[in-house]
Structure to design on (484 residues):
């Protein structure tokens, strides 16, 4: 990732330094959104996390892979509770922020490059909607199989997502239809993050309903065993290794 | 202005309805900025305005033209103090919000279309950095002459701007140099406003130092008689009709 592309890392590093910053997410069709809670939430202590995430943390066990660790909130929480944690993030600056905040083992690595060189895991955490990093079909089953190859028996994925169908915004529904017409999943967002002069490349980020998560997992060595839904915007799917 | 282009009006109307919304300003070179205070500030009561604006309001007299009235804060303040005010805004939705909030005479009109059909004015207010709407050379002197033709003797323009040279951001300095190489004024921003699926056309918005404001006014029937600088980001130039 070129420095000029590390908009996400700049946002996080800027927030660490100044306590300010707003995440701008641009969709490929021109829709743009500014999330004022963006960077602050990446630094939240446990008590401020969504309830579904707090509930799901009870299911974390053993050695943990924190996918898209951002500013390190999940890794730090689990480390403090005695877990061995490896945090990975595509963004060099996010990885640096996680390190600076005390995460012991952070790798600058795209999720598609995980391998047994990281060792084996008992839990894979994809919080902050990071189940979205599976992108869509056909990458999702491919990546889930890859995840299987780096886990121990009895492993779990705690996979957070947003059900894309739970929206009243007619523009979002139109986007879903457009995606379907193009053979994409409805919630398969094509987005980029922007911050000042920094712009990430376009990437696919999937919002999946629990049903869709279950279907993507099927046949890739995982099964959706439970859905933790606390009535919030987000939910956490519990995928168990089969 | 097509409804799909009224990003500014959507922002203001959305904020009136929900109390939320963030103004996203994209510069033509790809720099992007989200201003969390944007829409709220358009609704501020007098006591929350920048000090320079509050001081400058003492100089308003007679019949007033409020250029780029937005959500109507300046028009409402002056109306309450007994002034006859005409607010103009390019944005149909902003004009509607101003009307709904009680501004008696609002016209949906680009600043370049002001004419004697609006009657004659004693004061022209360009707050919220709206001196920027003069755009740059050669439009600024042309527009200032046009302003002169719709004012009475002894009229004043209360022109707010930001001195573009007062920044530590090296990216902004690079942008100034780039502008100069292209024969533009250093602070002549080429920007557009974005909100959800709405995007304004690109437009020029000038940040001018007091010296630059004085030079643009010279020969166009106005003279920079005073600069109200309260040590804030913004200042108000007092242009007097000569």
């Amino acid at each position: 990732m070129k420095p000029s592309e590390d908009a996400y890392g700049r946002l996080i590093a800027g927030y660490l330094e100044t306590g300010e910053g707003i995440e701008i997410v641009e969709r490929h069709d021109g829709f743009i959104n500014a999330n004022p809670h963006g960077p602050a939430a990446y630094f939240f202590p446990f008590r401020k996390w969504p309830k579904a995430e707090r509930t799901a943390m009870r299911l974390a066990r053993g050695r943990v892979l924190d996918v898209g660790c951002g500013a390190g909130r999940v890794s730090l929480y689990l480390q403090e509770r005695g877990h061995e944690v490896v945090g990975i993030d595509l963004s060099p600056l996010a990885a640096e922020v996680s390190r600076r905040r005390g995460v012991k083992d952070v790798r600058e690595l795209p999720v598609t490059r995980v391998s047994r060189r990281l060792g084996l895991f008992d839990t894979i955490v994809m919080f902050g909607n990071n189940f979205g990093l599976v992108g869509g079909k056909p990458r999702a089953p491919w990546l889930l199989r890859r995840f299987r190859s780096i886990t121990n028996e009895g492993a779990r994925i705690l996979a957070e997502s947003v059900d894309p169908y739970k929206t009243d915004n007619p523009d979002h529904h139109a986007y879903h239809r457009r995606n379907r017409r193009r053979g994409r999943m409805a919630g398969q967002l094509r987005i980029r993050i922007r911050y000042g002069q920094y712009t990430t490349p376009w990437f696919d980020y999937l919002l999946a309903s629990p049903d869709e998560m279950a279907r993507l997992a099927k046949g890739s060595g995982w099964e959706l065993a439970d859905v933790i839904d606390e009535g919030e915007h987000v939910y956490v799917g519990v995928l168990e290794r089969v």
In short: Chain B has a mean pLDDT of 96. The radius of gyration of chain B is 17 Å.
